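Homework help thread (please don't just give me the answer)

Our assignment gives two proteins as sequence + structure token strings and asks us to describe the second one. The first is just a warm-up. Here they are:
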Amino acid sequence: MDNVTLTINDIKVTVEKGATILDAAKKVGVRIPTLCHHEDLCVAGNCRVCVVEQKGARALQASCAVPAAEGMQIYTNTKKVREARKTIIELLLSEHAGECTSCYRSGNCELQAIAQEYLADGDAFIDVADMTEIDISSPAIVKDDSKCIKCTRCVRTCAELQGVSALWAINKGNHTKISTFMSKPMHYVVCTNCGQCINRCPTGALTERNYIQDVWSAIDDPEVHVVVQTAPAVRVGLGEALGMEPGRVVTGKMAAALRKLGFDSVLDTDFSADLTIMEEGTELLVRLKEALAEKKNVALPMMTSCSPGWIKFIEHQYPELLDNLSTCKSPQQMFGALAKTYYAKKKGVDPSKMISVSIMPCTAKKFEAARPEMNSSGFQDVDYVLTTRELGHMIRQAGIDFENLQDEKFDTIMGESTGAAVIFGATGGVMEAALRTAYEIVTGREVPFANLNIEPVRGMDGIKSAAVKIEKVKPEWSFLEGAELKVAIAHGLVNADKLMKEIEAGKSPYHFIEIMACPGGCIGGGGQPIPTSPEIRKKRAEAIYVADSELPIRKSHENPEIQMIYKDFLHEPLGHHSHELLHTHYTPRRNVK
């Protein structure tokens, strides 16, 4: 590819043709402020905060949108640039409700940070903030138009990364507004609650629905036993929320902090991730047996059901393919059902006086917990879902010195897990965990990959595929002898849509498909620390795999607590009790919320 050479503040830099002025500045360590720009999204160039001066040009240039050209002389800190940026920021502040001290995003707001940097006057222009009622219709997402600066990051996220387009920019000029279909509340449109728009919103216009005070109230009630579970990806995200560098595994500190916060039982969603593999892996093998040995008409490829954003997407967009979904609940909901049955009985706790809290990297989990079918324990299985960010808030509120906490372990009974469960947090992790167990069930041998690391299903490609040859099987699985199990993995709903179109057209070659709604999987979930970027997600994923490699048990079926729950309570995967508590059905939503 051709290169171009230019200067940034008299520093010579060479970049590939097609790179922007902003890219060139980054290469030589010159920071240019941005608001509408995001590494994950296409160029918009509509906020103009990133303007720079080009020698010989009449007007300032938007550095995020203008390609670098041979011989350009760019200046990023002239008087003209500084004054223009300050005025632009003040105009943006005039559209933004200035409630910084009480705003949920205070301290982590890009507009707030840049306004402080340029000493912008919030009263320089007439206040024209949209003071329409805040939309709290959704159990997962809050939309506050008074905080919106029309950067369109949310619109581009929903369209480009997720292929949903629940949010649109409507009207023009000073009447521009970010809206939904026919301006309906968020809960009544095709929103999947994935929260990716929240992760890329530079202000507090989009935030998660906050349940912190409800959880504090439960903890403070002496009559209530509060159980908490923590998802795999939280342990590689929580440190960021508390000021650490991305990629830190903080499992032990997290367990210690949860105890200090006052939770009565500190348990791990990783336990039910292992349980999910037992149920889902068995379900896959049963479907393959019915299709190959019994020649039945079976819904294949089977697709994972762990990601609630993905579930709501298929319910809206491809309801005719719902039979292809695994009937397994997500690990969060399996845990909730067992907490108020199995765990409550083991601990002698009245389930009517138990509050089940989950800490998730995902905003869609809030919607999932509120689904009417998620009450197989006889109660609402999961009462409150907090994001990684919300847990970070609670830890700061409690004055806990998180970084200097001594590591602690989870409680026993539903607190032990394996490396296979940890990798659920990264795209491809569910597939890898399932293959580790299913292959061994069928052959009696470990999967033929070095150190159990199934590299073909790892990485950040939007769609990945792999094939595993099955040989020397046990007699009861003879119909699989010599078969090649074909699998695929997609993350981000725009990639899921491509696989769904293949299935719809009858052209899918796969037997098993893993889909995660969020880029990178749960490590890039809508409830993870802000900011997000490809580099940050890569560091979180690397940490997930390190955590897996360091655990003494790395296959779900070898978890002694999983073995115990089947012996004492569930009896067998896909058994009667499992179907009652751990499996569910889905809702076609073509014309409903």
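The one we have to describe:
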Amino acid sequence: MTESLRHRGPDQQGVYYGPQIGLGAVRLQVIDLDGGEQPIRTSDGAFTIVYNGEIYNFAEIRAELEALGHRFRSSCDTEVALRAFVQWDTECFRRFRGMFALAIWDLRNQRLILCRDRLGIKPLYLRHDGSDIVFGSELKAILAHPRTTRVLDIVALEDYLSLNYVPAPRTLIAGIEKLPAGHFLEWRAGRHAVKPWWKLEFRPDSRITEEDAAAELDVLLRSAVKEQLVSDVPLGVWASGGIDSSTLVHYAAELGARPLKTFSIAFESKSCDESTWFREIARLYGTEHHEFELNRDSDVRGAIEDFAFYADEPGADAGELPVWFLSKMTREHVTVALSGEGGDELFAGYMTYRADELARRMRLIPRPVLQLGLAGAHALLAVSDEKIGFEYKVKRFLEGSLLSEDEAHLFWNGAFSYTQKKALLGQADQRVGRFYKGLQPAGEIGRLNRFLQLDQNFYLQDNLLAKVDRMSMAHSLEVRPPLLDHRLAEFAARLPEKFKMDGGRQKIILRRTMQGKLPDAILNRKKSGLDIPAHEWFRGPLLPLLRDTVTSAALRRMPMFRAEAVQQLIHDHESRRRNNGYQLWGLLTLFLWMQKWDIQAPHPADRTPASLDFASVG
């Protein structure tokens, strides 16, 4: 099991065996290169820890513990986490600022504690088998256990097809779960309980002025970047040319990071390329800049086939591909990189939030008129290579406008519509209420904040952060997201909605904070994501891989799929009747993953509920 994670920590590997327990760890050396080998035990052997991540304020916690009489044998944050637990038990987690997943064995009380950071930056999978519990940083560690079965979870499959990811606590394998962000699990005498230790509450404060909010945000950003620049190994910044990553470059430069290294992905496709913007940021701050051009000649097929091993669960988000190549290039120069994940979820940067508001107004139009508009769009907007993105988004928006606002928000970030999913599987669950269970009501916090809370609980944790973690750790690269410092998340949750989005203006308070710091061209540019031209490539370089993977034999192994519906999806895309590139990406990565790990089809009647329900995520 430990060996299966070697890519996450190539610098050191260790195991510990004790009564009732076996612990293993691999380590990527970032802090205290000469010390900190894991597992770490207290001198009396009473407590043992294995740990993945970084606690950025470990130095101040260490000083507090030393004042209380604790003595340390290393300079690493892992030992600080262990000693903090000895001193404060599970209350210690509230003192940590950082990203982490950890396991601590309490020998005296025969107790195991598993914990995951507030926002789910670091992963933690688990499976309970009777009185036993098996866990690991990646799903493949649990698959290495001899008693693990490999049966597809049909409910999770539906979620995957709808959303592009599987929300915690489920995974695509029945019986294996993800510990939700901000939770810890306590195991004792064969029984376990999952408890929240942090929950982000939205409490908009109308008394805050924009000027005061901008000043506070400036302080928080500087503090978060400063803490996350601490490293005993080379460090850089992922730069897309957008406001989030450019903000990180600005503060890193201001704080004296030298030489400041930046890393970017360029595309041959004009619809995805952001090279004009990130080259301007690199020039402005005089960074040591590195970029990789992702094009048809790149080893795209080889990378996608590697995903089947490294991705743990398949990702229907085609943004995995550029993150893979970006991570690979970055690791050739540094061991740690800062990234801008979280800015869109905290400050309302996605176009979906504007779509939510526009669709709310459109629903005042009689439904038959909207249906006529959708039919007209399909007739007028022909499938063409020149305007693929525009045509796809317009049709997607109009289709979403016919749904309820809760359904539409999930649909715009997802892949398969309910109709398409039902055609693929013969059955489908259209209920979306379980995803909103436990959220604060819109009447209390506002419509926008409710969608932000949803995306922070699921889309951010189970799609974006999972994608970045797997693609980066596959190359032994640690990626830190300063914008997800929990103090920033709590700050954003206190802001009135008008400081995040007002009409067509988005990320208002972040733009206000960065005025005079970043060029107006960067502050005012349109939102663009790290994506690939999926629609084009599934009529070109990715088509042979799709045909080789989603075969008749593969479909027979997974009889829950209707083969004729899958083939129709491919045919419609090839013949340019529809742009199904994003849907085909999800199917391709799913079938490659099932093939790689020998995943078995579930019994047709198997719709077993997860043992941790969505209410626990709240």
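TA reply:
I won't write it for you, but here's a hint about the kind of observation we're looking for: The domain at 3-196 is CATH 3.60.20.10 (Glutamine Phosphoribosylpyrophosphate, subunit 1, domain 1).
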